[in-house]
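Quick illustration, no need to memorize.
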Amino acid sequence: MDTINSIGRRKACTARVYFTKGNGKITVNGKEFKDYFPMVSIQGIILDPLKIAGAETTYDIKVTVSGGGFKGQSEAIRLAFARTLVKINEDNKKPLKEKKYLTRDSREVERKKFGKPKARKSFQFSKR
């Protein structure tokens, strides 16, 4: 195994993930994983597929992520991790699919319409 990569997307985020054999070091955009995502709940979102597959200390992972906020970025990384783990071992597919980690969440922000303050919100109606 040299390098296995995949892409995950969520909202406006795109995450590219590169797995190599190693000891479990994760870097995101050149920074330590825990420095880039300081919130413990967000770290849990990202590490879930690795825990399910039992590969927390098996691979060194390099992530490049762009766009969106920290929540969308973390979910894009989670999808990329899950896809890569399935590429590595097909037996990981069933438990990851049960948790819905292999499904791309396609919900995007609706665009703002002209004549309205937001996408659907209207100004207050006055009869008189």
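The longest strand covers residues 13-21.
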